[in-house]
Amino acid sequence: MASDETIQTSVVQNLGLQRHINCLTDDNRTTRRRALDSLRKETVEKKLEPTVLQGVFVEILKPVLKSFSDPVEKCRELAIQLVDGFLTSVPDPPETLPYVIPTLVQRLGQKDITETSEELRLMLVETLTRIVDLTGQELAVYLDDMVKILQRTIVDPFPDVKKESCRCAAKVAVKIPQHFNMQSESLVKPLLVTISHQHSKVRVAAIKAIHTCIQYGNNKNVEDVVSHLAQRLFDDSASVRMAVTELSGGWLLDLPDRYSFHHKLIPLLLSSVSDDVPEIADRAMQLWRDVGNKYQQENEEELKDKIDFTYSKVAHFPEGEERPNLGCRTLIFRNLSKILPACLRELGDWVVNTRIKAASLMYTLLLNSEDYTTMHMEPLLAGLYKACADEEKQVRNKVIKSAELVGCFVEPEIYCQLILPALERQPGANILMVLAAIIRGCRHEHIKTHLQAICDTLALPDVCRAEEPQYQYQLLSCVQAILTVSQQGTAPYSLQLFTVLVSTMALCRDSGVMEQAQNTLQQLADVQALSGVQQLYASHTQQVLQVLQPSHTYWTTLSPDRVIFDTLLLQAGPVVGDLLPEILPIMETNVHPDKDHELRLKFFTLLSKLLINAENTVNATGKFGEFALGVVQRMILVNCVWQAGRTAGAIRTIAVSSLWALLKSGLLSVQQANTIIDDMLTQLVTLLDDDVQSTRLITCRVLNHLLNLCGTTFDPDRLNKVYPELLKRLDDNSDEIRVAVAKTFSTFFPCIGVDYDRTLYKAHLEFMFKGLLVHLDDTDERIQESMLGVLKQAARVHPSLMQQEITAVKHKHRTPKYCDELLQHIQALPNETQDS
């Protein structure tokens, strides 16, 4: 040993290094710096024999290591570079570790930062990494010191130091795994601090270090890091997410205790399968296949029966999806009970991205679990319901895809027993959304025996009579899904689907819902090969009416049944004409004067619309005449009786409007009119003096139609009863009404037939002519022109009397123009008229 030291000393002296070594302690910074420069040039850079270099390194190491603490940064830098150079060049680096490692601990492993320079701390960590690379099992002795250093440097403020420290920690783990196992836990905490650093490269380095440290260290730390790694799945950096993917896949493949952590690691890897970056998603998918294959190989004996007898392709697998291998499916089968609850919880997380990721994971889990999903249907459906009400569209879309998988893999009997009662108890758009998606995922031969129960549930009043647009959209989605799946097999439950669609059309307030409902109704007709929607109404209107009829005596304005009745009749078309015995009693009940004003208004509006289009509705079969008298007497006239109030006035208006529509459509015969003429005139004469302008106007038009219908069959006494009221209306404050009255008089005079005794009723004619002549001098030229036409017709009744009355008032008129023209007309009348 003495001889070795002598040789080393002589080598140092022979190389002339002793003076440089002595200068390392000089007070002058420049001298110290030059000494370090000289030592490098005379040793490392001269490429000396390795054995010689080893001896020199051992001799000069201690004084050089002291320079690691030199107050001058440049001197410290040169000292670090010199040691690093020696370590790279000497044949036996471990020989120097008893001196180098403690120095590194002193510079890097203290509670407070000893080395103030970031760059030098980086160089020191790089030196430590070099030591790990250049040594073997000898490193185990210094593991505690190295861990002490890395605990500090992994959380160093300088990002590059963090990255290098992470790389160093991973190398230590690989180099001495059997010893590192005892200390790996000490590095987990600082690595978890660094995993959320603002620099993505630092985060990647930390994830890779965690991967390796736990792989070769204590596997129980998986529990501590999983939640932190899960957060990195939301990282903005693709490289970070890829690192997590590689970690989870690597652990599932090679972690010694991986079977204990399958339920923790599988969600990490499968979450990456739906990553937005194709490279990450593809890599995750490849790793998952590899994990499944390895699991299958490791458990080949246990899975032997399944391997031998499992079918390679399920009968109905989602289009565009690759079926997972047996190992993947078995892994999910055995761990779903532990994974699913957490996934369902995260579907309700307050962070949107968490919910989106959970929804994506849900789809992948169900794709791998296949029919084993059946075991978890109750909590799964509850989670799907909740997620389908999510305000985020991405969440809803992904959850809907998951629900379609349920339809694909789970027997209808199972989910029908859960969904249909839930829908009856508390109907909601979210439940309908799930049901529609499940139906879309089914095949007809699987679900056909359950479609009747599904359609019966959808047609329940509490289910199909909601007014919220989103609910209605989902209800229509269910119907569309049923039509798509069943196609020509829809006929047995066509009535139920028709009921749902008509109810939705009746109660919707959204144009989009209405359009979709009408399109779906057409689709219902098409799948049954019907000629059109009207054939659906012809088939089902009576059945729907039978459902509505029992409650009609209790209807109010807001009753869904009333609104459905209204829509059904307006849409049904010609079939209404065949169903008058069922329809009219319902209407008569609800326009009775004892009923609520608003309710009567609604029914009269419906009646008017039907009467206006009578040929295509109530009289499509020509049978309305049988019911016309009853409609007029028991529905219209009883509501024309005067009552105080604005709403009562509106009812009189709509009632007389219905009478006008009935007469205009020619639904009342002369004979029928004459049987009830007195009752009609009683109400119409009263209505001519109504406070509501529109009521007076429509009444004039009704009288016009009535006079035109009855013609000369109109009894003279009745004519004499009507005209005084018409004359009054010529003084109405509405010019529109005055013009209407003039038109009514034009119809009035042709009704005076031969049975009208001119002599007996001369006083009536004289009063009538005088009243009309007054308005021949009206300030409104339209009235004058109308009156001229009326008086020309009136002159035929009694020309001489008319001539006498004109002569009496002509001088009072502002202009004799109209009187002269009227006199000329009388002179031109045929002699037989003059004589009469």
Automatic annotation (TrEMBL):
Residues 23-306 form the Dynein axonemal assembly factor 5 TPR repeats domain. HEAT repeats lie at residues 722-760. InterPro entries: ARM-like, ARM-type_fold, DAAF5, HEAT_DAAF5, HEAT_type_2, TPR_DAAF5. It comes from the Eukaryota. SUPFAM superfamilies: ARM repeat. GO terms for cellular component: cytoplasm. GO terms for biological process: cilium movement; inner dynein arm assembly; outer dynein arm assembly. Coiled coil: none annotated. This is DNAAF5 protein. One of its GO terms (molecular function) is dynein intermediate chain binding. Residues 316-507 form the Dynein axonemal assembly factor 5 HEAT-repeat domain.
